[in-house]
Amino acid sequence: MTGETILEMLQRVRDGGLRPEEAMERLANLPYEEAGFAKIDHHRSLRNGLPEVIYAAGKTPAQVGEIFFRMAAMGGGVLATRADEAAYAAVKSLVPEAQYHPVARIVELRQARSATQNAGSLAVLCAGTSDLPVAEEAAVTAEVMGADVRRIYDVGVAGLHRLLAHREEIREAEVVIVCAGMEGALPSVVGGMVGAPVIAVPTSVGYGAAFGGVAALLGMLNSCSPNVTVVNIDNGFGAAYVASMILRRIQGQAARTGETAAHSRNHS
To answer: Which of 148, 164, 236, 244: CA 20 to 30 A from 140?
Structure first.
């Protein structure tokens, strides 16, 4: 439940479109709702501006469906990561409007009451086609959270000309997410090209000595580009979540600067 949905609810009570008892019932689920097998945190978006997200792996399809349904009932957008077709089927039976992104393995619902404003410009890059599931997890997550996402895929350092062909587009982004496996060199190259935060995502792509992404992780942690930071192996979601928070801060600062400038002009 977001601040906007609570405000809308109060306005509907004022205008007679919602009974006070019904509003009280909804608010009773703050800060969390007890579902027996889970405590659903409806309060998170009020604390940090972004909602709780369902991690579907390890949960039964029925559990994913039930959590998704309860979150959707609160009026906000809902996101479930690492979801398979069975989890999506369970969600779809309860929330027919939900959409599935099979490459990203994400089930998502965007509701009019939870429509997010443009949070800023984000570029999501990946080194090779094998990195697509992680890159798409990042891209879809960021889109649901309001970012204007530009996908730039299959631009690994083995063919540097492919990356350089997109250099202007990459430089326009306010934050860049870079997903790469093997030796994990791409984020360092991108970091040297842009004046923006670069969030590196090591992927579990590569032969034996890649150690399931550990080689890429260590390479990224040792990046010589100081604007590169690193999340966990295959954690496209985590990269997108942090990127969305950075973008919201940038947009908020820009708005405050504009208001200050307008105030100064009006009093000059």
So the answer is: 164
Domain annotation for the chain: domains and CATH numbers: 3-24+31-114 (no CATH), 121-249 (3.40.50.1970)
Distance (Å, whole) CA 54 – CA 82: 9
CA angle 84, 34, 239 (to 5 degrees): 45
Contact 108, 135 (CB under 8 A): no
Tell me which residue of 27, 26, 8, 12 sits closest to 111, measured CA to CA. 8
| pTM for this model (two decimals) | 0.80
Alpha helix positions (H), the chain: 3-15, 20-27, 44-48, 61-72, 85-94, 132-144, 160-164, 167-171, 186-191, 214-221, 236-266
Encode pLDDT of 174-216 as tens digits: 999 999 999 999 999 999 999 999 999 999 999 999 999 999 9
Query: Is the separation of the CB atoms in 137 and 240 below 8 Å?
Result: yes
- From the list 154, 116, 120, the residue with the least C-alpha distance to 135 is 154
98-107 pLDDT, tens digit each: 999 999 999 9
Residue 113 burial by Cβ neighbours in a 10 Å radius (0-12, 13-18, 19+):
middle
- Cβ distance 95 to 64 under 8 Å? no
Amino acid present at 10: L
Question: Mapping DSSP to helix (H, G, I), strand (E, B) and coil, where does residue 196 land?
Answer: coil
209-241 in b/e form (b: 16+ CB < 10 A) is: ebebbebbbebbeebebebbbbbebbbbbbbbb
Q: Strand 99-101 and strand 78-81: pairing?
A: unpaired
